[in-house]
Design goal:
31% of the residues lie in helices and 13% in strands. The chain has 15 helices and 15 strands. The strands form six sheets. The chain has a four-stranded parallel beta sheet, sandwiched between helices. It has a three-stranded mixed beta sheet with strand order 1-14-15.
């Protein structure tokens, strides 16, 4: 357990912007910066995006207004799978047991969000777009729906005035930013990881801008620097720190002696045996005999796996868990290698250009270990930990406040400013009914 200072407010010098020009702060990034939470983009999540919380503190040092592409406050929100946002609700599982569970608050998401342009309300200082990768951040026409599925992003379409020609980067630069935060790269690898290595690929480090990660982030950061802006670069958390990947135990198949004997007999041809107590789940693996095997320690069962299928549908015991809900050792190795390479590159850009750097990876691992903030325990446990929202990937208001403080520390350290930190106790974790 890591202990933070018991009192978040301490005596500090008078507020100063140091050697920064905070006239126009622009944030560029993906869903984590956009305020996406609880598996959807919705007003309440946008209000507490960490760039917006950071912007409110920068205002104390003379920063200008910070506009975000808000959805309607009464909307149920919409996610990348066209779903409504999650909320904790009583739920009866397949066995009849009732407990609180993350449940979508409507049968489907609010499609008006993606089909109604808010560009006239812009330009927007928060240019973070859910689903954006480093390679798509610089893609002209990224909002052009005529390019067809997979070739445009409806979350960008709704907020750009020039969907057929603009890129996220060009819209950001058009505002003449004097200060920026850059948090890109998560979706270059997380799309692969979140789908169990099935539905997306990992952006290679090498290759020209628009193909390779390194050249793409060089182009993004270089464009801000050429515009004369100073800023902050953030790195990418390892998946081991994220609840989506570590909440469901690999050995969550708990059986009695009679069931263990029956399963051992059924799987004897595959050389798989079971014992009373915890056992590794049975998973799909096309390279294994019979197309299935027992999951090994260190491999991951994703939070997206249907819990009723595990409890009552025979998944993981009589039926293998489908590949899209599993990250194998080889897939984890590919993800970890990419994150490590990306983070090395991001740190080198910051160092080479005199920019502030936020080690978000270290921050997330500290949260995973557990912290005490003003007497409140916070950790990365799903639902109960307070830091992560109900999708297990994006942060709660409390988590965003703590992350914004990490940015403020980096800014103050690099630029000689004295931007006050946020009192994170004013923000909540997961909302309970």
């Amino acid at each position: 357990m890591v202990f933070f200072a018991c009192k978040p407010h301490v005596d500090v010098p008078a507020v100063s912007k140091g050697n920064l020009d905070l006239t126009n702060y622009v944030a560029i990034g993906n869903s984590i910066s956009a305020g996406y939470a609880d598996n959807a983009l919705y007003y309440g999540g946008q209000e507490v995006s960490y760039p917006n919380l950071l912007a409110q503190q920068l205002k104390l040092a003379g920063a200008g207004n910070f506009k975000q592409p808000y959805v309607d406050a009464s909307s149920v929100g919409i996610g990348v799978n066209q779903n409504a946002r999650f909320a904790l609700k009583p739920n009866a599982d397949c066995s009849g047991a009732i407990s609180l569970a993350p449940i979508a608050i409507a049968n489907e998401g609010d499609f008006n969000i993606l089909t109604t342009s808010v560009a006239a309300q812009g330009p927007f200082n928060n240019m973070a777009v859910p689903g954006a990768k480093s390679i798509t951040t610089i893609y002209p026409g990224y909002g052009d729906f005529t390019k067809g599925p997979g070739n445009f992003n409806p979350f960008f379409t709704r907020m750009t005035a020039n969907p057929a020609s603009a890129s996220i980067l060009s819209d950001a630069l058009a505002q003449n930013p004097s200060f920026f935060t850059m948090s890109v790269g998560n979706d270059d690898v997380y799309g692969y990881a979140l789908s169990g290595g099935v539905f997306d690929g990992i952006t290679p480090s090498v290759g020209p801008a628009g193909v390779g990660f390194d050249a793409s982030v060089d182009m993004i950061a270089g464009a801000f620097l050429q515009a004369g802006a100073k800023g902050v670069i953030a790195n990418i958390p390892e998946i081991s720190a994220i609840p989506y990947f570590n909440t469901v135990p690999y050995n969550g198949l708990v059986v009695d002696a009679t069931t263990a004997a029956a399963l051992s007999a059924a799987y004897a041809p595959l050389g798989i045996s079971f014992q009373a107590g915890p056992n590794g789940f049975i998973i799909e693996d096309i390279n294994a005999p019979g197309g299935m095997r027992q999951i090994q320690a260190g491999e991951m069962v994703l939070l997206s796996v249907p819990q009723d299928s595990l409890k009552c549908g025979g998944w993981g015991s009589m039926k293998p868990i489908p590949d899209q809900y599993i990250l194998t050792a080889d897939e984890i190795s590919q993800v970890n290698s990419a994150v490590s390479a990306y983070n090395t590159k991001l740190k080198s850009i910051a160092d080479a250009n005199g920019l502030a750097f936020v080690d978000v990876n270290a921050f997330m691992h500290t949260v995973k270990t557990g912290i005490i903030y003003n007497g409140v325990g916070i950790n990365a446990s799903f639902v109960s930990g307070g830091a992560f929202s109900l999708d297990g990937v994006h942060l709660t208001p409390l988590g965003n406040a703590l992350l914004a403080n990490a940015f403020i520390k980096a800014i103050n350290s690099k630029y000689g400013s004295t931007i006050p930190q946020i009192d994170a106790t004013r923000y909540k974790g997961v909302a309970f009914p």
